[in-house]
Amino acid sequence: MNNLYKFILFFFISIIIMDYYKKYRKYKEKYINLKNKSGGNLNYKNELWIYPNFFNKNDFEKIKSHCNNLQFKNDKRWSDRKTVCLNKSKYNELYNLIYKNKKFIKLIKQISKNKKIKKYPSYPIEYRIYPTNSSGMRWHSDTSMFTPDALEVVLTLSNTSDSKFLWKTNKSNYEEIKPEENMLSIVKPLSVVHKVTPVNYGNRTILKFIVEYDNSVPNENYFREIKNCPE
C-alpha cells in the first residue's frame, strides 16, 4: 500500500511538473517571438526571417516597374496560382536591383554566416500571382532544390487580398502575418512548416527567388521545378 501511495504521488507530481514545463515553453517562445519582432523584423529559430519595407522606395518602385507588363501563365506545379520565370539575360537589370543591393547582400551574409554566396543563382526569379479564389498553399516545408540547401526568398509586390502567411510554432499552434508590399520573407528549405491562406477577394503578387551557395549542387527537385516553370 505504501508503494502504491508513493507511485500515485509521483504520478501526480510528474503531471504537475510537465504542465508547468509546457507553460514555461509556451511563454518562453512568446517572449522570443516578441523580442525577434522588435522593429517589425522577425527571426524565427533561424529558419524564417521577415522584414517589412525592406527595399528603399526608389528601388522597390524600379523592381515593380519591371513586372508591370508581364503576362502570367498557368503553373503546372500548382493550379491555384499563375507564374512566369524571368531569365537573367533578359531581365538583367531586375536581377541587379535585387542581388546587387547592399542591404540584401549584408542580410544574406549574416544569415549564411561562413557560406560563400553565388553572385547570381542558377534558378530564375519567378513572378507569381495568387488571384481571387486561389486556395493559397497548404501546410508544407519548402522542398530543397540544392545540396547543400539554398535559401528561398519571397518579396511581396502587392496584396489587395485577405490572404495571410502562417507558420507553425508547434504541432497545434501557429503565428500569422498579413504580407504587405515590400515585405521580404526568407525561409530555409526543409525547416519551418508554413502555409498561405485562401484568397477570398483581391490578389497577391510576389517575386519568388533563391540565394544559392558556391558549393550548392542542383538535385532532381531543381530539374523538375525549372522544367515546369513557364517563361
Structure description:
With 231 residues, the chain is an alpha+beta fold. The protein has five helices and 14 strands. The strands form three sheets. An eight-stranded antiparallel β-sheet has the order 1-2-11-8-13-5-4-3. A hairpin with a 7-residue loop joins β3 and β4. The protein is globular and about 80 Å long. About 5% of the residues have low confidence.
Properties at a glance:
single chain, alpha+beta, eight-stranded antiparallel β-sheet, four-stranded antiparallel β-sheet, 5 helices, 14 strands, 26% strand
- Based on CA atoms alone, the radius of gyration comes out at 21 Å
Detail the poorly predicted runs. 27-38
Please write the string of helix (H) and strand (E) elements.
HEEHEEHHEEEEEEEEEEH
Count all strands and give the number. Answer: 14
Major β-sheet strand ordering: 1-2-11-8-13-5-4-3
Query: Could you estimate the helical fraction of the residues in percent?
Result: 25-40%
Query: Hey, roughly how much beta strand do the residues contain?
Result: 25-35%
What structural class do the secondary elements suggest? alpha+beta
- Provide the residue-averaged pLDDT: 88
Number of helical stretches of at least 4 residues: 5
Spatial shape: globular
Distance between the termini: 77 Å
**Major sheet attributes:** 8 strands, antiparallel
